[in-house]
Amino acid sequence: MKLVVNMIMGSMMNAFSEGLTLAERSGLNPGTLLDVLDLGAMSNGMFRLKGPTMLQNSYSPAFPLKHQQKDMRLALALGDENAVSMPVAAAANEAFKKARSMGLGDLDFSAVHETLKAPDHSS
Length: 123
Known about the structure:
Blueprint: H1 2-25, H2 30-39, H3 45-55, H4 65-81, H5 87-101
């Protein structure tokens, strides 16, 4: 169960990070995005807790990124064992791997947001 929950959490964090970056680069206020997300069906504790710290580039570890990436890798292996295609989780895993290669493994898993600030953010 833990692998499945962490796989969902890691995939959500990547989509959330992309949304924050898209809002900012499109001239929208990412803080306002957090407020809007908190109003509807998308409201959740992870966005509420991690969003403000991500906007401040503060990644004090609650769940280290290196452990998140390990769980993504293990969940993908479990998917392979059970013939479950997981392209979203696979893409999220690549982003966590990139973050680890940038030396962010000991920071909170939300530091995956930093991969979108790197010059080559194609992952």
